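Question (not urgent): is this output format expected?
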Amino acid sequence: MRIRAVLSFLCIAALAAGLVYAAPPQIRVQVNLVNLFATVRDKHKAIVSGLTKDDFQVYEDGQLQKITNFSAVSDLPITLGILIDTSGSEAYTLPAEKEAASRFLSRVMRKGDLSMVMTFDTDVDLLADFTDDHGVLDRAINRAQINAPGSSAIIAQGPLPGSGSGGTNFYDAVYLAAHDKLADEAGRKAIVVLTDAEDTGSKVSLQDAIETAQRTNTVVHILLVSADGGDESVARKLTEETGGRMIVVRSERNLNQAFDQISEELRSQYTIGYVPTNKSYDGSYRKIKVVMKNKDYSALTRRGYYAPSN
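Got this back:
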């Protein structure tokens, strides 16, 4: 009691004398941790497991970075977008695509995962918003139909704002999926697109679609389904720049194999984190290269990111 009384007296005396001490200012430290998801395959294209951070080297703009976070992830939740091209060029393959997409979701999705379904042609339509309900997703996939613009034919969410400029809006679909749907999601994010990668009507450019996927940390995989080969250069650029894979599909059997390959990769990844040696918050694009110390291995990951701005 005596000590408490003395302390009270001293506090009152200090206040009376105008000796008011402010708390020291808080120091904010910004840490720009860059996270990468990487899939590693050997020279025979088989998935490589059991690696440690010492098996990897990460370079940003040519400068070696120190890996601070590392783990093998197989159960980290995935937020997934299925995008189906419903333009006239996919008329003969759409039934097989729908069947394979449903089977893919039933195989890849686990507890905690969410998926959505979109189609694109002259519009970009959201058939099912993010859900873990396989029944909802299957029904949405089954509703996909060739050249079904907007709400006149689809009993679902309807066309997304900013779509509907005519032609095949492939770039718009990727942009809207990443920007409007995946930007606020956390953890692993991926888009799987079934398309011939030919765009004839988008409002945004291919580079806009790539940049939006990069800024939202979204990986884009493309199953290139086309009777005449499709636009491989577009599909390859979009997937390589975002850390995804482009697979050419020539038959229904190839389609199922392609989905199996994507499923395997989504469930066999390493997460690699580092704090860049470049501390500038300038919004610039930084190139990333992941090098495997074992030269028989190769890592699939995104090729860069945009630094935050002040």
